[in-house]
Amino acid sequence: MVRISRFVLIAGCVATALTAAGCSSSSKSGSGSGSGSITLHVQGMPPATDRAGTAQFQQMVADFEKANPGIKVQGSTNVYDPMTFSAKLAAHTVEDVIKVPLTEPQRLIAQGQVRSITGQLQAWDHYKEFNPQVLAPLSDAGGQVYGVPQNPYAQGLMYNRALFTAAGLDPDKPPTTWDEVRTDAAAIAEKTGKAGFVAESKDNQGGWQLTMLTYAFGGDIEKKTGGKYVSAFDDAPTKDALNLLKSMRWSDNSMGASQLNNQTDVVKAFAAGQIGMFLGSPGTYRLAKMTYGMTDTASFGAAAMPQAGGGATLTGSDVYMVPKSVDAKHAEAAAKWLIFAYALPAYDTTAAAEQAKTLAADPKAAVGVPTLPVFDAARQAQIADAIKPYVNVDLSHFTPYTSNLAALKLRPEPEFEAQKVYAVLDTVMQAVLTDKGADVDSLLAAAHKSVDATLSADQK
Per the record, which residues fall in region Disordered (predicted)? Predict the structure, then answer.
């Protein structure tokens, strides 16, 4: 069980949704124009709509190139797409540094598709101060580390404080149980005419949401038996979660009119004041404000994920890795970039403060949104103090989230072929939310067989 003793309030770019538009082909690692120089192609550059994040990224590139005169960095706005990623990786058309969700590292490590960066990390003075639970999902059984995380998070219950008030609910006391979620969602729908609670159900995000719910109800999605992964969700916790959604959708009519949603749909509607609650991380505050123009940001509230039956809260992050196909020279440069761009800003108080100051210069930016700690508690406290002058979010609205983190059991996403599992579970979520007569037991039995067949085929 992971116990987080402190949270960190650091500046960072918008967390990318699990799926996005398809990536265009990137050029292979190539030489720069100068003698002995190289050009490093890296994912992680924010979209043009994120002006503060883009300015921060460009400054980071300039600082890195100044410190490493033989390396030129070319940023890419390409993002992870589960439909095309594996093919691009196999064809060696991805960048020298790739950005993937936490569902992917274990598969990429097992398949030998990414490079270990253990040596470079261990040579860094502060390697031993990493939170070991942050590195564990990025490591193999022998302790070799293959990536650096950015903005790790724990999922929670995001809610609209204004709609809580309009429904006669206390915005400082959001739900702490699933029964309370159901009751409050019904009250919001009845009193305001808005959706009390909305779940994502497409683009693999339905499976992701069902994983959050399964964990929260004390269940599992997959397990390892005899050295191989098999599905583990055809049991009471997942059934209880789905039956809760079914009751909210069809008995309470508290989930709104639109049921085929991805994260973009949900956060956009939330930003417009149309949704009372959804499952997400505090990082969606940035999406709501910076990408979807949420003007009433004082209405954004964040609470811990309700638990049931010894449940756990799903944790995740974006992860930066180096493909195995990258040559040694570019791989060495890539490791330097990972430490400079993602490890150092999360550790160094001066760098963290400079990033926060850069972001705070843009009135549309969000500085201080809580994340999970990358380093030990002592360092995280120093980082929080360093960026305090630039924090521009109302931290009291995140207190129901941050004050409960220490008591939560945190679990990462499924280790093996999570995206393929999510794709199957999407169909289950969609059926429950769109078909009043959907039979949960039958849906899960069919999904169980389908996932086991997929996992078996991929482990031959």
Answer: 22-49
